[in-house]
Amino acid sequence: AATKEPLPEGPWNTAKMPGFLRADHTVRIGHGGHDFDSACEALRQWTHYAQDWIRVYPRPPKLEAGSTFVVAAKTYGMWSTSACRVYEVIEQSTPTKRFGFAYRTLAHHVEQGAARFVVEQRNDGDVMLEIRTISRLKHLLPRLLSPLGRRVQRIALAGAIKSIEAAVLKAARTESHRHNPGRIELHPYCR
To answer: Which residue blocks in 52-137 are alpha helix, DSSP H?
Structure first.
């Protein structure tokens, strides 16, 4: 079942959507083709949800438009499940290398909204992770407790960024060790 109120494609304008909060985060997570490939693989494996209090089913969900998945989250001592559907997969090689996907919440989700996760390798080689979300709390209890709900969103976002960064760094260390066994070398991102 799709959400009753469609969310806009392209730029999300919260001014036209009362009650929705938008968050845009872009962070540098590496440099060069290897880091880009590692970040893409981390998104394919849904590493951004590799957090102690979050589970995704199936594991990992298919990255294709129309694919449905469930997010289980343990917040404030209770597990909740929410269904979502991938509506866009981004694979671009020119003029800028980009990979990612976007999904929307379905009818019985505690929120109504969408999220987009994109990795981009810029012309200077920097690898950026962009996370965009737009959401509003749907059900009465979360709305009454909205500061707690928004706090959970911030924790999930910070954990997603940390998980992708860690996956890229681990892949870089593995690659460096493979080429220089016995020699420890700092990845350019850590210098």
So the answer is: none
